[in-house]
Specification:
Blueprint (H helix, E strand, L loop, with lengths): L10 H16 L4 H22 L13 H13 L5 H19 L6 H8 L16 H8 L6 H16 L3 H5 L6 E2 L6 E5 L5 E5 L2 H8 L1
Antiparallel strand pairs: 1-2, 2-3
Helix pairs in contact: 2-3, 2-4, 3-4, 4-5
Length: about 210
């Protein structure tokens, strides 16, 4: 006996399942990554609503065509003035959603496959400059002698000492800092849940204690 064909999930259901189950439970991505994917999809859906002339709840997966995505990418660069790196990040988030959704709505698989073929845009990575030791020390010593200034002085010195991202330093808690004379270090919690311990210089330890 032939089984009745199942009705494909609605677009709204796909979006909800993607964020509520797939990203958070199955892939267990960090909250920052989920938030970045959410922001990318929100920007795309706002563009799609205006471009298609219909609300998001009325959209279908088959309407996310390569032409729509290409127009969205052009909108990012020309209207929102996003750099190529941001444009590629939005596209990567959209690709992730389409891969997920295409396996749950097989009727739109052909359109999804063509949309996934849109390549990331190549760009030149700029050569980063650097400060001399004297210039770096001038930056570290720039904050005033107030409480806020002392805090900023410590943050600058920690950044210089560890080479950490700003987001890593601002997440450091008291328990992450070890001021042992023979094994002083700081435990950093980085992007993608990566953790590492970085030794602290004696001058940094002295500043933190002060």
């Amino acid at each position: 006996m032939r089984k009745p064909s199942q009705t494909p999930p609605s677009f709204a259901t796909l979006v909800q399942t993607y964020f509520a189950e797939y990203l958070t439970q199955q892939l267990a991505l960090s909250p920052r990554t989920v938030a970045a994917y959410r922001d990318a999809l929100v920007v795309f859906l706002q563009f799609a609503e205006a471009h298609l002339g219909k609300a998001t709840v009325a959209m279908t997966l088959a309407e996310i065509t390569p032409q729509l995505i290409t127009a969205f990418l052009a909108h990012l660069e020309e209207q929102r003035h996003n750099c190529v790196r941001s444009r590629n990040a939005r596209l990567a988030a959209l690709r992730s959603f389409l891969k997920f959704a295409g396996h749950r709505d097989l009727s739109a698989l052909a359109v999804v496959e063509r949309a996934l073929a849109i390549p990331l845009k190549r760009f030149e990575r700029p050569l980063f400059g650097y400060l001399s030791p004297e210039e770096m020390l001038a930056v570290i010593d720039a904050p005033p002698a107030t409480w806020i200034g002392q805090r900023d002085h410590v943050l600058f010195q920690m950044l210089y000492n560890t080479g950490a991202r700003v987001s890593e330093i601002t997440q450091v808690k008291v328990g992450d800092v070890v001021l042992d004379d023979h094994a002083a270090c700081v435990h950093l919690h980085g992007k993608g849940r990566k953790q590492r311990s970085v030794p602290l210089w004696r001058t940094t330890v002295k500043t933190i204690r002060a």
